[in-house]
Amino acid sequence: MKVGMRQPSLKRSLKARTTGKWKRQAKRAINPLYGKKGMGFIKNPKESVNNAVYHRTTFGIGDIFKKLFK
After folding, report:
1. What's the pTM value of the predicted model, to 2 decimals?
2. Which site among 32, 34, 36, 39 is 20 to 30 Å from 47 CA-CA?
């Protein structure tokens, strides 16, 4: 498991910021449980736990700026 700073990816950052709203609306219209808290754990518990640990043990450039300008 990675510990420390994540390597920034401009491509992934742009994709995450531009793909969102309509795709989420479409998925919610089809699946009423989409986006509800805890559904990731029900769908795939192992991946959910790994993601939670990764989120707690790594940080990115955005996290640094948030702390500096808080």
Report:
1. 0.66
2. 32
